[in-house]
Amino acid sequence: MPANRKSDCSQAPRQLVGFILLAALIIIWGVTIARDARAQSAPGRPGQLHAAFSIWEPFVIEDASGQHGIDMGILTELSHRMGKVLVLHPCPWRRCLKMLEEGDIDVLSSFAYTAEREKFAFYIKPAYSRVSPVFYVRQDGQTDIFRYEDLSTLAIGSVVDSRYFEPFDSDRSLNKFEASSEMLLLRMLEANRVDVIVGSDANVDFEIRRNDLGDMIEKAAFRPDHHNDIHIAVSRNSPLMSQTDQISKIVTDLREEGFIARVHARYWPASDDAKYPDGPQPTE
User: Fold this and answer.
1) Are the beta carbons of 71 and 110 closer than 8 angstroms?
2) CA–CA dist 48, 129 (Å, integer)
3) In whole angstroms, what is the distance from residue 108 CA to residue 89 CA?
4) Is residue 24 a contact partner of residue 86, using CB atoms and an 8 Å limit?
5) In this structure, are residues 125 and 133 in contact, taking their beta carbons and an 8 Å threshold?
6) Helix ranges, 85-215 (H)
7) How far apart are alpha carbons 146 and 123 in whole angstroms?
8) pTM of the model
């Protein structure tokens, strides 16, 4: 019996060492697989254009027919003219920004300029769209706004945590009511719970069209002197930084040929970018 116990004890360390070696091999194998998968999807892989996107109607729409919209049309045509396969990465907006900063993607669309973002993003010019803050009222004629001061006596709906323009954003004298989305704001306006709402013209115009509210809600006469140009941004950590001139040339061509006007006319007909440039209108 003592001899048998001694034999068992001598085998135990060898079994433990074998288990540790097996676990190590599994871990190494897993790391290798993950590394290879990341390499296969890394931006700049020959023949691919990696683009991230968040749902932001009408620029990116997700419904029963799939993902489409202004950005999808432009990115698809861009990849075609560059001779690349478009690889899409859906993500929350903050995650999209991080992926662009780290070079996990090549490009990000619906990108407005800030000095902070320019540190990691190269802005392709020209811009392909423009959004502006706009006030909306009911068409019953009871309320209209002709100047900023007219807001002082009104109940104003806005999206929580949104930034529109100054001095509106920091004006604490105004009677503001916040909601989580433009659609909720439109319902509040329709139900007379607020006198006026403010929102990005692209998003609110889209919701008005989609919900057939055009016969009861309209834009106010007052328009803030503010807008945000919308660009395609290239990650400064992407190999595509060597092709920014080519991308800029393609976007310029898309605008001059009327492609950008057509895609805006389909998804956002009220946009100024839905108008064709001077010269002959391109055929479909």
Assistant:
1) yes
2) 25
3) 10
4) no
5) no
6) 93-102, 182-190, 201-210
7) 35
8) 0.71
Q: What pLDDT score was predicted for residue 212?
A: 94
Give the separation between CA 159 and CA 211, rounded to whole angstroms.
18
| Closest C-alpha among 129, 85, 78 to residue 234 | 78
% the chain with pLDDT above 90 = 67
Tally of residues, the chain: 284
**pLDDT, tens digit (0-9, with 9 covering 90-100), for 116-138:** 899 999 999 999 999 999 999 99
Q: Which two tokens stand for residue 136?
A: 């909306």
Characterize the bridge pairing of strands 155-159 and 133-138. Answer: unpaired
CB atoms within 10 A of CB 103: 19
The C-alpha atoms of residue 144 and residue 130 are separated, in whole angstroms, by 24
Q: Report, as ranges of residue numbers, the positions in the chain whose pLDDT lies below 50.
A: 1-9, 30-42, 44, 278-284
- Please tell me whether residue 170 adopts helix, strand or coil conformation: coil
Question: Are the C-beta atoms of residues 133 and 220 closer than 8 Å to each other?
Answer: no
CA distance 223 to 140: 20
> 36 to each of 55, 69, 100, how far by Cα in Å?
29, 33, 21
- Pick from 171, 215, 173, 177: nearest CA to 196: 177
Please give the Cα distance from 208 to 232 (Å, whole number). 26
| C-alpha angle 86-63-229 in degrees, rounded to nearest 5 | 60
In angstroms, the CA 56 to CA 203 distance is 8
**List of E strands, 139-269:** 155-159, 175-179, 196-200, 217-219, 228-235
**What pLDDT does 2 receive?**
39
- Identity of the amino acid at 38: R
50 three-class SS:
strand
